[in-house]
Amino acid sequence: MNTSALRAALEQAALTERPLNPVYSPLSALGRKQLTPFDLLGQSMSTMAPATCMVFIALWMSTFTVGGAGLVAIVGATFVMTLVAFCIRQFTRRLAASGSLYSFVAHGLGKRATLTAAAVLLVGYVGVSISVLSNAGANLVKVADVSGLHLGTGSVTIASVLVAVVVVSIAIRGVRFASRTILVIEICTLVLITTLLMRAPVELDMANTSTNAPIGFVLFLAMQTVLSLAGFESAAFFGPEARTPLRSVTRTLLVSPLLVGALYVFAGWAGMTGHAGTLLNAYFGGVDSGASLLLVMAVNIGVCSSWIASTLGFAQAGSRLLFSMSIEKIVPSFLDRVHPRFRTPWAAVTLFVGVSLFGSLWHNPDHAPDNYDVVIEIALVLGYTMVSIAALRFLGRISEHTLWTRMCGLCAAAAGSGLLVFAVVDTARSGAWAYIAWFVALGASGTIWHLFLRWFRPESIDAIGVFDSVETADLLPGSAELEMSAAGKPVLAPPRHGR
Predict the structure, then answer these.
(1) Cα(245)–Cα(241) distance, integer angstroms
(2) Is 107 in contact with 95 (CB distance < 8 Å)?
């Protein structure tokens, strides 16, 4: 090591005055280098809500006579989502952004496609948030009923409002506190659920369930697995806030779908072989199924906690998405307001949870949510397919493709496109044309949004694709300087000596 050169650089830095007008990252308001890999894993786990999803996967595999085909669908969906994770990895190893897939698509595809990805993510994240918030309120009332507190009419609405207030308070308090709380809750619930799924086979004390989804059950199960894994990429929203974003975010993205997907395969096996009987009887049948009151309470509290944690996870991820788009001025600028102490986008958090709460008033978790889920699944699959194609284009543009990256990108894009085609064909066969219209509307959303921006806010189109960048404070004084280019981007310039 050339110590003389290092010593000279340090001496030069000591004699160099700090610039009067330092350059900051456009995302510096969120607070940089504060989240550990532990925190990022908690965020990814929360949005997936693996504990609750394991219960329902076990239920479907227990009550539908599809045998190994259902298990193959779960394994296949997990494999495809892992391929998507490898595609997203190509972006997270090179840049950190608070817009996640939306920002990544901006660096691989055109502006219209980026706006389509924005619309798809908003629909998907808000849609799932409405569902989990509604279920959290309903489960909270169910816990009260099991404990002997029989609440009156309107209790689910009141419970949902209570959950929303708690979620907003915690999300504004800070992502580090929230993610660690989430991870502890999810781990405790997963230990309970996994232990119950390992019990000896017990006869299921409930009638067979049915689905009114306009698609076949195996395809429905595959898309439900995708929906259950949705949000694994939410750690990427916190790249600017992570201590080592290019490494820790990438590792979290690769580990989380594999880990949770393995849990879903295990839950499917337990449901298919009868090992899920104890868990399902306790959760769906209560004490009337012969389960003890203590077990029924434990299962319901665990599932309810997982629903609440998922609501919190989506609030944090969705607020970062809105914040990023607000920085770029493609949504109202008030959403970029950050809490002066906690450095959290409080305006975006409040709006996101408020919209979710409003939507939850019409979402009834007691009725089969199959049709609603298909609508959200189409949006999410479209988003994952777009980022897979964007990864192929991005690596091709920077000439960093390998055989492995091409294979992963092509397989993920083909699998996502195939899943969408099968969904469209199945819905058309069943006469559910509204779903096809919905798919067409999502596909056209970017073009319509781009046209609107070109008329009313053309400067925002050029600003799309903001990511975390180096700041003046990151540079050794005297080594280089940061200046703002004509496009408003920070660029490195040679140091000015003799000042």
Answers:
(1) 8
(2) yes
Q: Which amino acid is at 250?
A: T
CA 305, CA 188: separation in Å to the nearest integer?
Answer: 10
- Phi-psi region at 491: left, alpha or beta (left = phi > 0; alpha = psi -120 to 50): beta
User: What single-letter amino acid sits at 9?
Assistant: A
What pLDDT sits at residue 499? Answer: 42
State the pLDDT confidence band at 498, using cuts at 50, 70 and 90.
very low
In terms of Cβ atoms closer than 10 Å to its own Cβ (0-12, 13-18, 19+), residue 203 is exposed
Longest dimension (CA), the chain: 84
Whole-angstrom distance, CA of residue 492 vs CA of residue 499: 18
- Token code pair at residue 80: 């495809």
> How many CA atoms, within 13 angstroms, populate the side-chain half-sphere of residue 11?
6
pLDDT above 90: residue 420: no
How far apart, in whole angstroms, are the C-alpha atoms of residue 432 and residue 427?
Answer: 5
The span from the CA of 467 to the CA of 448, in Å, is 24
% pLDDT > 70, the chain: 86
Q: What one-character-per-residue DSSP string does 378-401 give?
A: HHHHHHHHHHHHHHHHHHHHTT--
Model confidence at 428, in pLDDT bands (50, 70, 90)? confident
Distance between CA atoms of residues 312 and 215, nearest Å: 31
Q: Are 395 and 90 in contact (CB under 8 A)?
A: yes
Q: Please give the full DSSP string across 271-315, using - where no structure is assigned.
A: HHHTTTHHHHIIIIIGGGGT--HHHHHHHHHHHHHHHHHHHHHHH
Quick check: 254 pLDDT over 50?
A: yes
Contact 296, 146 (CB under 8 A): yes
Mean pLDDT of 448-472: 87
Tokens of 366: 């007691």
Contact 160, 134 (CB under 8 A): yes
Q: H/E element holding 348? A: helix 346-360
End-to-end C-alpha distance for the chain, whole angstroms: 30
Kindly indicate the confidence band of residue 375, based on its pLDDT and cuts at 50, 70 and 90.
confident
In three-state secondary structure terms, 63 is: helix
Apex CA 95: angle with CA 387 and CA 473, to 5°?
A: 155
8 A C-beta contact, residue 467 and residue 97: yes
pLDDT for residue 359 = 93
